[in-house]
Design a protein that fits this description.
Order of helices and strands: EEEEEEEEEEE
Largest sheet: 7 strands, mixed
Number of strands: 11
Distance between the termini: 40 Å
C-alpha cells in the first residue's frame, strides 16, 4: 500500500504563485510515474502534469509555461510549482503515483488539496 500526503494548497490572488508537495510512503519497491490532476466543481478530473522516474514531463495545454512539475526520488516526493495563477485554475488538486513491486503495480491517489484563485 502507498499513502500520498499533499500540502501547499490555499487561497491566492490571480497572478500569484503556489507550490504543491506530495510525499509518498508505505510498502513499495519503486514509484514509476507521479503526477497531478485537478477537479473543478461540476467538472471531470483532468490531467495537469506528470513526471516519470527518469524526469520526463508532460503538461496539459492550459498550464504549459506556467506550471512546473518536479520530483525528488530520494524523498519519494513530487512538486508542482504554479505561477501566474488564473481563476480558472481553481480546483481540488490530486496527487497520483504508479507504484509497486515485482509484477504488482497500481495507481494511487492522494486526498486532494484545495487551490482557490481569486480575481
Amino acid at each position: 500500500q502507498v499513502q500520498l500526503v499533499e500540502s501547499g494548497g490555499g487561497l491566492v490572488q490571480a497572478g500569484g504563485s503556489l507550490r504543491l508537495s506530495c510525499a509518498a510512503s508505505g510498502s513499495f519497491f519503486s514509484i514509476n510515474a507521479m503526477g497531478w490532476y485537478r477537479q473543478a466543481p461540476g467538472k471531470q478530473r483532468e490531467l495537469v502534469a506528470t513526471i516519470t522516474s527518469g524526469g520526463s514531463t508532460n503538461y496539459a495545454e492550459p498550464v504549459k509555461g506556467r506550471f512546473t512539475i518536479s520530483r525528488d526520488n530520494a524523498k519519494n516526493t513530487v512538486y508542482l510549482q504554479m505561477n501566474s495563477l488564473k481563476p480558472e485554475d481553481t480546483a481540488v488538486y490530486y496527487c497520483y503515483c504508479y507504484a509497486g513491486s515485482g509484477n504488482h503495480y497500481r495507481g494511487y491517489w492522494g486526498q486532494g488539496t484545495q487551490v482557490t484563485v481569486s480575481s
